[in-house]
Amino acid sequence: MSSCLSFTSLALLMVLSACGGGGGGGSESTQADTPFSKTYIASAAAGEVLNYTFNSVNRTYSYQVVRSAYSIATGTTGSGTLAANGDGSWSPSESPGSKVYAVSNGGVVGGIKISLGGVNREVPVYGIADPLTKVTDFAGTYNYVSLQCAVKNNGVFTGCDTAYGTLVISAFDVLNGTYQMCVKGYPAAAVNCSSTVNGTISASDVSGLWKFTNNATNRDSYLMIHADSNGQRVGLLDFDDFGGHGFGQAMLAQLAGVTASQIKGTYVYQATLPNEANQKSGTFRFDDVSFTTRTDLFFQLNRPWDGIAKVGANGYAIFTDGGAYAYRNPGVASGYYELGIKRSY
Questions:
Q1: Considering the entire predicted model, what is its pTM?
Q2: How far apart are CA 126 and CA 134, in angstroms?
């Protein structure tokens, strides 16, 4: 039997309609309050692949460019210090208006300042720990939410669109595979694709970073996927594909239903705001007693298919059992795209 649950706040109203669902809630985010150091493979939303190191023991962070859509030299680095915030997140010294939160066996969300087109821009970043090194370990069907810009826009996110849909990855062997991206659809749930993109997956020279090659353009984007603490595969696409996928990023989550109890908790997020030098960052909570900083939202979980949440009239989100989420809403702005991690339950 399905169930529906309403969440109300003190200052704002959010109604969460939960119908259908999967397993129990994860415990990944409860580890993050113990100091640790971890290096993640990460994607900056403008189209850069990074190694991002979070160190709450020494209260420092650093990053190194691995791939760049903007011809930033491989090996370019940045670093700084972390200042603790009262909400459990950290503020990086390079971009103190943003928030960083990391989970040792999960993901990291935050923002970096990086030179794009000769101007230092604040760009949202999401990274994953311990990426998988065999295609056979991550073949399957995924939901995705994406930010895709037709041209390089130097991190101001104008002329961009956001999308959602499904991605099917098939393995030839441990180092090679194929993909089919179904935009705004999932045929197995009788939701037709508005368009499809096909391509190949092959190993790059960086362990755990995969070439994601569009058959139509023969251009390489990059894929990274890991298994979260509950075994669900969660990943990122870093787009660098003029005339095809465009430039930007997508979050992937292995297709599975979610329940209201799984997404209940406090989240740290980073988002794109078109035409803004500094990007939006903060925390919010989904709960039956605490307030949320979000505007009025109506969530329908597992609509139009498992693992996707319909948000109001135009928004869609994906939530994972381990605490990662992504949200797009062209009703906020044409390129509004948000990434986050659950901090606590």
A1: 0.88
A2: 21
Does a structural domain hold residue 225?
A: yes
Residues 177 and 217 in one domain: yes
CATH number for the domain including 195? 2.40.128.120
Q: What is the pLDDT along the chain (345 residues), one digit of tens a residue?
A: 333 333 222 222 223 333 333 333 443 444 446 899 999 999 998 889 999 999 999 999 999 999 998 888 999 999 999 999 988 899 999 888 789 999 988 999 998 888 887 878 888 899 999 999 999 999 999 999 999 999 988 777 888 899 999 999 999 999 999 999 999 999 999 999 999 999 999 999 999 999 999 999 999 999 999 999 889 999 999 999 999 999 999 999 999 998 888 888 888 888 887 655 446 787 877 654 333 455 545 678 899 999 998 888 889 999 898 889 999 988 887 888 999 999 875
Q: What is the CATH number of the domain that holds 43?
A: 2.40.160
